[in-house]
Backbone:
């Protein structure tokens, strides 16, 4: 019987099965891509959170460094106050020698020097000036546009060559300095003035740090008592831009920041800009910082004076956002999703094809079984190990063996005799494995011991890869002429 090729078409799954397989594979792909996107997003968020934490740490450190810079001159002023308390009188030369013992440029960046402001009653002004000239300052004079109240005159100032324009100035006559003098005198606390003019440093943002000096052994419990005991102020003229620039150098690789006088980040109150990007800007609002990934604004109170510090992330710090991890996970997730979807599609399509093939085989086997059952030829079917799995009634009638006896045995075990041509048997058995059909003549023995000739045709079953089918026809007892026959 020739192979039935109709099963190739019948084995294809129906269109609805193919569509269902494709849709499920697409669903797997979408789930994989969604999980990949979530993983990439989580990695990006983790990277952003890490950089955010680094940025916050840098801003905290910047704030501490700025506050430390403002504390350094206070330590020197307290040392000077101890110097004044230890001696009844101090000459100009002694004060200059005290200041010269410190390395201003290294220890106190941005500090122009140290000085002493003496409180002078207006009626004692002429005597005060004469005493100063006698103390090695023949060119000393007092600059005071006012005519009322006490004066607060810069008496000592070292190094003098850097601060000559402020020497002899009555700071009470300057509104910004006066407010700081009043606060320091009344509270007894170190006080920083707002930005004020210090001659040539006015355009760099200048201020004065004041430390009140009281007469010893006098009560200082109330503002009135402190004012009565006030001798003057030890002070340090500070160029804020220089002081902050020394701090900015420590953070230039990680941060950019601006420093404003007062409580608002106002263009007119800008004291320092690390990268000068606001120098020519009319507006210093958020739009001027849109290229920064991270920003922070801190309100500081330094020695009683308010400032606003605004910091932004640098390009160097933001490089931590652009790691290769999310990209690698994204690429790997896409490839894995495609591979998984393809595998699912192949499995589902293969399963549906196998189901369709099984159905087609069932139909074909059923058809063949009906044909084989009603044919007059003897038919047996074997599995891949050549063991009989089915026989028809004609086989039972020819051989005398019942179905139960035949099942599970090989044709050789059941039918061969000493007269059987074993070479022909081997050729017949090998034919299905090579996909060929073979017809031969064999002499076998029935159950009753009768030898008979028959002409079996052996071929591989068209509907299954394992069994073989043998069709035989009864022959006379005498051997017929053996001639080759076509399938």
Residues:
């Amino acid at each position: 019987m020739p192979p039935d090729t109709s099963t190739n078409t019948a084995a294809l799954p129906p269109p609805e099965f193919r569509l269902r397989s494709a849709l499920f594979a697409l669903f797997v792909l979408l789930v994989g891509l969604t999980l990949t996107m979530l993983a990439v997003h989580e990695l990006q968020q983790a990277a952003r959170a890490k950089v955010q934490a680094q940025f916050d740490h840098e801003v905290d450190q910047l704030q501490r460094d700025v506050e430390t810079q403002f504390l350094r001159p206070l330590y020197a002023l307290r040392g000077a106050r101890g110097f004044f308390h230890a001696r009844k009188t101090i000459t100009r030369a002694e004060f200059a020698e005290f200041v010269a013992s410190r390395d201003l440029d290294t220890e106190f960046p941005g500090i122009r020097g140290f000085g002493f402001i003496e409180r002078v009653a207006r009626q004692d002004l002429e005597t005060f000036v004469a005493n100063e000239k006698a103390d090695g300052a023949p060119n000393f004079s007092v600059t005071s546009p006012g005519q009322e109240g006490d004066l607060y005159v810069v008496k000592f100032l070292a190094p003098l060559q850097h601060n000559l324009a402020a020497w002899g100035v009555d700071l009470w006559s300057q509104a910004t300095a006066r407010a700081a003098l009043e606060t320091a005198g009344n509270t007894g606390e170190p006080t920083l003035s707002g930005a004020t003019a210090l001659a040539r440093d006015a355009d760099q943002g200048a201020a004065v740090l004041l430390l009140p000096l009281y007469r010893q052994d006098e009560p200082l419990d109330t503002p009135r008592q402190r004012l009565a005991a006030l001798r003057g102020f030890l002070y340090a003229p500070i160029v804020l831009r220089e002081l902050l620039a020394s701090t900015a150098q420590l953070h230039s690789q990680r941060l950019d920041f601006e420093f404003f006088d007062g409580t608002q980040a106002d263009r007119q109150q800008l004291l320092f800009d690390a990268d000068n990007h606001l120098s020519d800007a009319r507006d210093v609002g958020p739009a001027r910082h849109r290229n920064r990934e991270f920003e922070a604004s801190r309100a500081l109170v330094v020695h009683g004076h308010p400032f606003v510090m605004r910091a932004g992330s640098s390009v160097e710090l933001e490089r931590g956002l652009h790691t290769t991890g999310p990209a690698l996970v994204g690429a790997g997730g896409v490839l894995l999703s495609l591979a998984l979807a393809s595998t699912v599609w192949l499995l589902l399509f293969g399963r549906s094809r196998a189901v369709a093939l099984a159905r087609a085989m069932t139909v074909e086997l059923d058809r063949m079984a009906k044909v084989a059952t009603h044919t007059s030829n003897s038919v047996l079917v074997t599995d891949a190990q050549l063991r009989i799995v089915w026989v028809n009634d004609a086989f039972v009638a020819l051989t005398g063996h019942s179905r139960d006896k035949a099942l599970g045995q090989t044709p050789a075990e059941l039918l061969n005799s000493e007269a059987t041509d074993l070479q022909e048997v081997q050729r017949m058995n090998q034919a299905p494995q090579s996909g060929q059909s073979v017809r031969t003549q064999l002499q076998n023995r029935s159950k009753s011991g009768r030898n008979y000739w028959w002409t079996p045709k052996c071929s591989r079953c068209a509907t299954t890869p394992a069994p073989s089918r043998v069709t035989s026809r009864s022959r006379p007892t005498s051997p017929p002429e053996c001639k080759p026959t076509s399938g």
Q: What stands out?
A: The radius of gyration is 54 Å. Residues 84 and 90 are 7 Å apart (CA to CA).
